[in-house]
User: What shape does this take?
Amino acid sequence: MSFNDLGLSAELLRAVSDQGYSNPTPIQAKAIPPLLEGSDVLGCAQTGTGKTAAFVLPILERIDLDSSITQAIILAPTRELARQLYGEVKKFAKPFNLRVASVSGGLSKYEQTKRLQQGCEIIVATPGRLLDHLRKQRINLHLCRYLALDEGDRLLDMGFDEDVHGIVSFFKKQ
Ligand code: AMP
Assistant: This one.
């Protein structure tokens, strides 16, 4: 299978080839088409198998480039993972001039708040810090249609289920 068969736009195909990827990995081939159709997907693949691009590419494909409001939230269980994810997402988002914010513990709340006030289409976050900003109304989810839980099993193992439900309830409310 080639990336051309997955339903990605020419711009994203260019971004993919700029990364040096020639063919989709199995998780990408399986997850990208249903995500582009708007389905929820529960994907399972080991680290290093391209699972990040499997959910980031469809998010980029479906984001409204004319709206500068937050449209996607990507959650990671640890600060380290959030930091790596932020780097990956920024790499793909760059050709589209999309703004990505990192919202995780251990980083200055003041700097994050300033960054959020400037506006961003995509937020990469750890659950506790995201909830903190949501409760203080520093993030508005009313146009946010995509929620990705990276390493969802670890999010639950590490006891973040209540925080994740709290975040989902903000999506529902807004
Ligand atoms: P993951 O941690 O599962 O997201 O895997 C990330 C690694 O896989 C990174 O080194 C990516 O550059 C690489 N990768 C992702 N998609 C592809 C692809 N289609 N072809 C080759 N390498 C890829």
